[in-house]
Automatic annotation (TrEMBL):
<dbReference type="GO" id="GO:0020037">
    <property type="term" value="F:heme binding"/>
</dbReference>
<dbReference type="InterPro" id="IPR002051">
    <property type="entry name" value="Haem_Oase"/>
</dbReference>
<keyword id="KW-0408">Iron</keyword>
<keyword id="KW-0150">Chloroplast</keyword>
<dbReference type="Pfam" id="PF01126">
    <property type="entry name" value="Heme_oxygenase"/>
</dbReference>
<dbReference type="GO" id="GO:0046872">
    <property type="term" value="F:metal ion binding"/>
</dbReference>
<comment type="similarity">
    <text>Belongs to the heme oxygenase family.</text>
</comment>
<dbReference type="GO" id="GO:0010024">
    <property type="term" value="P:phytochromobilin biosynthetic process"/>
</dbReference>
<dbReference type="GO" id="GO:0015979">
    <property type="term" value="P:photosynthesis"/>
</dbReference>
<feature type="region of interest" description="Disordered">
    <location>
        <begin position="1"/>
        <end position="21"/>
    </location>
</feature>
<keyword id="KW-0349">Heme</keyword>
<dbReference type="InterPro" id="IPR016084">
    <property type="entry name" value="Haem_Oase-like_multi-hlx"/>
</dbReference>
<keyword id="KW-0560">Oxidoreductase</keyword>
<feature type="compositionally biased region" description="Basic residues">
    <location>
        <begin position="10"/>
        <end position="20"/>
    </location>
</feature>
<dbReference type="GO" id="GO:0004392">
    <property type="term" value="F:heme oxygenase (decyclizing) activity"/>
</dbReference>
<dbReference type="InterPro" id="IPR016053">
    <property type="entry name" value="Haem_Oase-like"/>
</dbReference>
<keyword id="KW-0602">Photosynthesis</keyword>
Protein backbone atom coordinates (compact mmCIF):
# COMPACT_ATOMS: atom_id res chain seq x y z
CA UNK A 1 0.00 0.00 0.00
CA UNK A 2 1.16 3.54 -0.69
CA UNK A 3 2.48 5.40 2.32
CA UNK A 4 -0.16 7.60 3.89
CA UNK A 5 0.55 10.84 5.68
CA UNK A 6 -2.02 11.41 8.39
CA UNK A 7 -3.07 14.98 8.95
CA UNK A 8 -2.38 16.31 12.41
CA UNK A 9 -5.24 18.23 13.96
CA UNK A 10 -3.56 18.97 17.25
CA UNK A 11 -2.23 22.34 16.28
CA UNK A 12 -5.49 23.71 14.92
CA UNK A 13 -7.10 22.71 18.22
CA UNK A 14 -4.88 24.79 20.42
CA UNK A 15 -5.12 27.73 18.07
CA UNK A 16 -8.89 27.63 18.01
CA UNK A 17 -8.85 28.95 21.56
CA UNK A 18 -7.09 32.16 20.56
CA UNK A 19 -9.36 35.12 21.25
CA UNK A 20 -7.91 37.71 18.84
CA UNK A 21 -8.78 36.14 15.54
CA UNK A 22 -9.06 38.09 12.36
CA UNK A 23 -12.68 38.64 11.20
CA UNK A 24 -13.69 36.62 8.14
CA UNK A 25 -13.21 38.38 4.82
CA UNK A 26 -16.30 39.68 2.98
CA UNK A 27 -18.44 37.18 1.04
CA UNK A 28 -17.13 38.33 -2.33
CA UNK A 29 -13.73 36.95 -1.42
CA UNK A 30 -15.28 33.58 -0.70
CA UNK A 31 -17.40 33.49 -3.81
CA UNK A 32 -14.39 34.00 -6.02
CA UNK A 33 -12.27 31.62 -3.99
CA UNK A 34 -14.80 28.86 -4.14
CA UNK A 35 -15.55 29.50 -7.80
CA UNK A 36 -11.88 29.23 -8.55
CA UNK A 37 -11.55 26.06 -6.51
CA UNK A 38 -14.66 24.42 -7.90
CA UNK A 39 -14.76 25.06 -11.61
CA UNK A 40 -17.96 23.11 -12.14
CA UNK A 41 -19.54 23.11 -15.54
CA UNK A 42 -21.93 25.86 -16.65
CA UNK A 43 -25.07 24.10 -15.49
CA UNK A 44 -23.79 23.72 -11.98
CA UNK A 45 -21.57 26.74 -11.64
CA UNK A 46 -24.61 28.75 -10.64
CA UNK A 47 -25.88 26.32 -8.09
CA UNK A 48 -23.01 24.38 -6.61
CA UNK A 49 -20.53 27.12 -5.75
CA UNK A 50 -23.31 29.06 -3.99
CA UNK A 51 -24.25 25.91 -2.15
CA UNK A 52 -20.65 25.36 -1.13
CA UNK A 53 -20.05 29.01 -0.27
CA UNK A 54 -23.08 29.00 1.96
CA UNK A 55 -21.71 26.08 3.91
CA UNK A 56 -18.10 27.09 4.19
CA UNK A 57 -17.21 28.03 7.72
CA UNK A 58 -14.15 30.06 8.48
CA UNK A 59 -12.32 28.51 11.35
CA UNK A 60 -9.58 30.51 12.96
CA UNK A 61 -6.62 28.20 12.65
CA UNK A 62 -4.13 31.03 12.92
CA UNK A 63 -4.52 34.72 13.62
CA UNK A 64 -2.98 35.53 10.24
CA UNK A 65 -4.62 32.98 8.02
CA UNK A 66 -8.29 32.10 8.33
CA UNK A 67 -8.86 28.63 7.01
CA UNK A 68 -11.97 27.65 5.11
CA UNK A 69 -13.72 24.48 6.14
CA UNK A 70 -15.35 22.39 3.48
CA UNK A 71 -18.79 20.90 4.14
CA UNK A 72 -18.32 17.52 5.78
CA UNK A 73 -14.56 17.99 6.18
CA UNK A 74 -14.50 17.47 9.94
CA UNK A 75 -16.00 13.99 9.54
CA UNK A 76 -13.61 12.86 6.83
CA UNK A 77 -13.39 13.01 3.06
CA UNK A 78 -16.24 10.56 2.40
CA UNK A 79 -18.59 13.01 4.06
CA UNK A 80 -17.37 15.70 1.67
CA UNK A 81 -18.06 13.42 -1.31
CA UNK A 82 -21.47 12.57 0.10
CA UNK A 83 -22.34 16.24 0.56
CA UNK A 84 -21.59 17.08 -3.07
CA UNK A 85 -23.41 13.95 -4.30
CA UNK A 86 -26.57 14.62 -2.29
CA UNK A 87 -26.90 18.12 -3.74
CA UNK A 88 -26.80 16.64 -7.24
CA UNK A 89 -29.98 14.65 -6.59
CA UNK A 90 -33.35 16.15 -7.34
CA UNK A 91 -35.78 16.69 -4.47
CA UNK A 92 -37.88 13.84 -5.82
CA UNK A 93 -34.86 11.50 -5.68
CA UNK A 94 -33.69 12.34 -2.16
CA UNK A 95 -34.65 14.80 0.58
CA UNK A 96 -31.27 16.56 0.49
CA UNK A 97 -31.45 17.00 -3.28
CA UNK A 98 -31.33 20.46 -4.86
CA UNK A 99 -31.13 19.85 -8.59
CA UNK A 100 -33.96 20.60 -10.99
CA UNK A 101 -35.67 17.68 -12.71
CA UNK A 102 -34.52 17.54 -16.34
CA UNK A 103 -34.28 13.85 -17.18
CA UNK A 104 -36.91 11.10 -16.85
CA UNK A 105 -34.88 9.18 -14.24
CA UNK A 106 -34.84 12.28 -12.04
CA UNK A 107 -38.60 11.99 -11.46
CA UNK A 108 -39.95 10.05 -8.46
CA UNK A 109 -39.26 6.33 -8.87
CA UNK A 110 -42.85 5.63 -7.73
CA UNK A 111 -44.07 7.19 -10.97
CA UNK A 112 -41.68 5.41 -13.30
CA UNK A 113 -43.07 3.18 -16.03
CA UNK A 114 -40.25 0.67 -16.48
CA UNK A 115 -40.13 -2.10 -19.09
CA UNK A 116 -38.45 -5.50 -18.73
CA UNK A 117 -36.46 -4.90 -21.92
CA UNK A 118 -35.27 -1.54 -20.63
CA UNK A 119 -34.42 -3.01 -17.24
CA UNK A 120 -32.42 -5.78 -18.92
CA UNK A 121 -30.44 -3.17 -20.85
CA UNK A 122 -29.77 -1.39 -17.55
CA UNK A 123 -28.57 -4.61 -15.90
CA UNK A 124 -26.31 -5.51 -18.85
CA UNK A 125 -24.71 -2.04 -18.93
CA UNK A 126 -24.38 -2.00 -15.15
CA UNK A 127 -22.60 -5.35 -15.34
CA UNK A 128 -20.14 -3.96 -17.87
CA UNK A 129 -19.41 -1.04 -15.53
CA UNK A 130 -18.93 -3.30 -12.49
CA UNK A 131 -16.80 -5.78 -14.51
CA UNK A 132 -14.62 -2.85 -15.55
CA UNK A 133 -14.39 -1.33 -12.06
CA UNK A 134 -13.62 -4.64 -10.41
CA UNK A 135 -11.02 -5.46 -13.09
CA UNK A 136 -9.32 -2.09 -12.48
CA UNK A 137 -9.26 -2.61 -8.70
CA UNK A 138 -7.82 -6.07 -9.19
CA UNK A 139 -5.08 -4.83 -11.50
CA UNK A 140 -4.51 -1.71 -9.33
CA UNK A 141 -2.56 0.54 -11.75
CA UNK A 142 -2.19 2.82 -8.71
CA UNK A 143 -1.23 0.91 -5.53
CA UNK A 144 -3.89 2.67 -3.42
CA UNK A 145 -6.64 0.93 -5.46
CA UNK A 146 -5.59 -2.40 -3.94
CA UNK A 147 -7.19 -1.22 -0.66
CA UNK A 148 -10.54 -1.73 -2.35
CA UNK A 149 -10.15 -5.40 -3.32
CA UNK A 150 -12.70 -7.79 -1.81
CA UNK A 151 -14.76 -5.21 0.01
CA UNK A 152 -17.90 -7.32 -0.27
CA UNK A 153 -19.58 -4.58 -2.32
CA UNK A 154 -18.58 -6.17 -5.67
CA UNK A 155 -21.57 -6.61 -7.99
CA UNK A 156 -20.22 -8.32 -11.09
CA UNK A 157 -20.89 -11.95 -10.07
CA UNK A 158 -24.31 -11.08 -8.65
CA UNK A 159 -25.31 -9.49 -11.93
CA UNK A 160 -24.06 -12.54 -13.84
CA UNK A 161 -26.48 -14.67 -11.79
CA UNK A 162 -29.37 -12.29 -12.44
CA UNK A 163 -28.76 -12.29 -16.19
CA UNK A 164 -28.65 -16.10 -16.12
CA UNK A 165 -32.03 -16.07 -14.36
CA UNK A 166 -33.54 -13.82 -17.05
CA UNK A 167 -32.15 -16.16 -19.70
CA UNK A 168 -33.82 -19.12 -18.01
CA UNK A 169 -37.07 -17.17 -18.07
CA UNK A 170 -36.77 -17.03 -21.86
CA UNK A 171 -35.46 -13.49 -22.28
CA UNK A 172 -32.69 -12.69 -24.74
CA UNK A 173 -29.83 -10.91 -23.04
CA UNK A 174 -28.87 -7.84 -25.11
CA UNK A 175 -25.32 -6.72 -25.89
CA UNK A 176 -24.07 -3.76 -23.83
CA UNK A 177 -25.32 -0.48 -25.23
CA UNK A 178 -23.73 2.91 -25.69
CA UNK A 179 -24.15 4.33 -22.13
CA UNK A 180 -22.41 1.33 -20.54
CA UNK A 181 -19.70 1.06 -23.19
CA UNK A 182 -18.96 4.79 -22.96
CA UNK A 183 -18.77 4.78 -19.17
CA UNK A 184 -16.57 1.66 -19.07
CA UNK A 185 -14.13 3.24 -21.54
CA UNK A 186 -14.04 6.44 -19.53
CA UNK A 187 -13.35 4.57 -16.28
CA UNK A 188 -10.49 2.61 -17.84
CA UNK A 189 -8.86 5.76 -19.14
CA UNK A 190 -9.34 7.67 -15.88
CA UNK A 191 -8.07 4.85 -13.70
CA UNK A 192 -4.65 4.99 -15.34
CA UNK A 193 -4.12 8.72 -15.33
CA UNK A 194 -6.27 10.33 -12.65
CA UNK A 195 -6.64 8.36 -9.39
CA UNK A 196 -8.57 11.11 -7.54
CA UNK A 197 -11.20 11.33 -10.27
CA UNK A 198 -11.35 7.55 -10.51
CA UNK A 199 -11.96 7.20 -6.77
CA UNK A 200 -14.86 9.65 -7.07
CA UNK A 201 -16.56 7.29 -9.53
CA UNK A 202 -15.71 4.29 -7.38
CA UNK A 203 -17.41 5.90 -4.37
CA UNK A 204 -20.47 7.13 -6.25
CA UNK A 205 -21.12 3.90 -8.12
CA UNK A 206 -21.03 1.60 -5.08
CA UNK A 207 -22.71 3.98 -2.63
CA UNK A 208 -25.43 5.08 -5.04
CA UNK A 209 -26.32 1.46 -5.61
CA UNK A 210 -26.55 0.75 -1.89
CA UNK A 211 -28.95 3.70 -1.40
CA UNK A 212 -31.10 4.86 -4.32
CA UNK A 213 -30.20 1.77 -6.33
CA UNK A 214 -31.80 -0.55 -3.80
CA UNK A 215 -34.93 1.56 -3.72
CA UNK A 216 -35.11 1.44 -7.51
CA UNK A 217 -34.65 -2.34 -7.48
CA UNK A 218 -37.54 -2.78 -5.09
CA UNK A 219 -39.94 -0.50 -6.99
CA UNK A 220 -39.08 -1.95 -10.39
CA UNK A 221 -39.47 -5.51 -9.07
CA UNK A 222 -42.93 -4.58 -7.72
CA UNK A 223 -43.97 -3.12 -11.05
CA UNK A 224 -42.60 -5.60 -13.59
CA UNK A 225 -40.97 -8.65 -11.96
CA UNK A 226 -43.70 -9.89 -9.66
CA UNK A 227 -41.54 -8.74 -6.72
CA UNK A 228 -38.64 -11.06 -7.68
CA UNK A 229 -35.62 -9.94 -5.63
CA UNK A 230 -32.51 -9.87 -7.78
CA UNK A 231 -29.03 -10.85 -6.54
CA UNK A 232 -27.86 -7.37 -7.56
CA UNK A 233 -29.59 -6.09 -4.41
CA UNK A 234 -28.24 -8.71 -2.01
CA UNK A 235 -24.95 -8.56 -0.17
CA UNK A 236 -23.12 -11.30 1.73
CA UNK A 237 -22.85 -9.95 5.24
CA UNK A 238 -24.09 -6.79 6.87
CA UNK A 239 -24.29 -4.08 4.20
CA UNK A 240 -23.93 -1.16 6.59
CA UNK A 241 -20.74 -2.70 8.00
CA UNK A 242 -19.35 -3.33 4.50
CA UNK A 243 -20.08 0.30 3.59
CA UNK A 244 -18.46 1.56 6.76
CA UNK A 245 -15.30 -0.47 6.08
CA UNK A 246 -15.08 1.11 2.62
CA UNK A 247 -15.72 4.61 4.03
CA UNK A 248 -12.82 4.10 6.45
CA UNK A 249 -10.52 3.02 3.61
CA UNK A 250 -11.57 5.90 1.39
CA UNK A 251 -10.94 8.36 4.21
CA UNK A 252 -7.52 6.85 4.78
CA UNK A 253 -6.52 7.00 1.11
CA UNK A 254 -7.72 10.61 0.82
CA UNK A 255 -5.66 11.65 3.83
CA UNK A 256 -2.57 11.66 1.64
CA UNK A 257 -4.21 13.97 -0.93
CA UNK A 258 -3.63 17.69 -1.12
CA UNK A 259 -6.61 20.04 -0.91
CA UNK A 260 -6.35 20.54 -4.67
CA UNK A 261 -6.50 16.79 -5.27
CA UNK A 262 -9.52 16.51 -2.97
CA UNK A 263 -11.27 19.31 -4.82
CA UNK A 264 -10.46 17.66 -8.11
CA UNK A 265 -12.08 14.46 -6.85
CA UNK A 266 -15.21 16.36 -5.70
CA UNK A 267 -15.48 18.12 -9.05
CA UNK A 268 -15.73 14.77 -10.79
CA UNK A 269 -19.03 13.98 -9.00
CA UNK A 270 -21.06 15.71 -11.66
CA UNK A 271 -19.64 13.43 -14.38
CA UNK A 272 -20.39 10.43 -12.24
CA UNK A 273 -24.05 11.49 -12.10
CA UNK A 274 -24.12 12.11 -15.82
CA UNK A 275 -22.72 8.69 -16.80
CA UNK A 276 -24.78 6.80 -14.21
CA UNK A 277 -27.90 8.78 -15.14
CA UNK A 278 -27.49 7.74 -18.78
CA UNK A 279 -27.41 4.09 -17.68
CA UNK A 280 -30.35 4.48 -15.24
CA UNK A 281 -32.43 6.04 -18.00
CA UNK A 282 -32.25 2.74 -19.91
CA UNK A 283 -34.78 1.35 -17.41
CA UNK A 284 -37.32 3.73 -18.88
CA UNK A 285 -36.45 2.98 -22.53
C1 LIG B 1 -33.28 7.67 -9.53
C2 LIG B 1 -32.07 7.93 -9.13
C3 LIG B 1 -31.66 8.07 -7.70
C4 LIG B 1 -32.39 8.01 -6.56
C5 LIG B 1 -33.87 7.76 -6.40
C6 LIG B 1 -31.48 8.22 -5.46
C7 LIG B 1 -31.83 8.24 -4.14
C8 LIG B 1 -30.98 8.31 -3.07
C9 LIG B 1 -31.36 8.25 -1.68
C10 LIG B 1 -32.78 8.10 -1.17
C11 LIG B 1 -30.23 8.33 -0.95
C12 LIG B 1 -30.13 8.22 0.56
C13 LIG B 1 -30.16 9.55 1.21
C14 LIG B 1 -30.00 9.43 2.71
O1 LIG B 1 -28.96 8.97 3.18
O2 LIG B 1 -30.94 9.80 3.39
C15 LIG B 1 -29.13 8.43 -1.87
C16 LIG B 1 -27.82 8.50 -1.49
C17 LIG B 1 -26.78 8.59 -2.37
N1 LIG B 1 -26.85 8.63 -3.74
FE1 LIG B 1 -28.51 8.56 -4.84
N2 LIG B 1 -30.21 8.38 -5.94
C18 LIG B 1 -30.28 8.29 -7.30
C19 LIG B 1 -29.24 8.41 -8.18
C20 LIG B 1 -27.93 8.57 -7.82
C21 LIG B 1 -26.84 8.69 -8.75
C22 LIG B 1 -26.97 8.69 -10.27
C23 LIG B 1 -25.72 8.80 -8.01
C24 LIG B 1 -24.30 8.93 -8.46
C25 LIG B 1 -23.79 8.20 -9.41
C26 LIG B 1 -26.09 8.76 -6.60
C27 LIG B 1 -25.22 8.83 -5.54
C28 LIG B 1 -25.58 8.73 -4.22
C29 LIG B 1 -24.65 8.73 -3.11
C30 LIG B 1 -23.14 8.79 -3.20
C31 LIG B 1 -25.40 8.64 -1.94
C32 LIG B 1 -24.88 8.60 -0.51
C33 LIG B 1 -24.93 7.20 0.04
C34 LIG B 1 -24.48 7.11 1.48
O3 LIG B 1 -24.61 8.05 2.24
O4 LIG B 1 -23.99 6.06 1.85
N3 LIG B 1 -27.45 8.62 -6.54
N4 LIG B 1 -29.62 8.43 -3.17
Amino acid sequence: MASLTPISHSHSHSLLKRPNVRPPPPPSFFSSFILKDFPYSKTLSLKLPRMLTRNVVVSATTAEKPRKRYPGEAKGFVEEMRFVAMKLHTKEQAKEGEKEVKQPEERPVQRWEPSVDGYLKFLVDSKLVYDTLEGIIDKAPFPSYAEFRDTGLERSEKLAKDLQWFKEQGYTIPEPSSPGVTYAEYLKELSEKDPQAFICHFYNIYFAHSAGGRMIGKKVAEKILDKKELEFYKWDGDLSQLLQNVRDKLNKVAESWTREEKNHCLEETEKSFKYSGDILRLILS
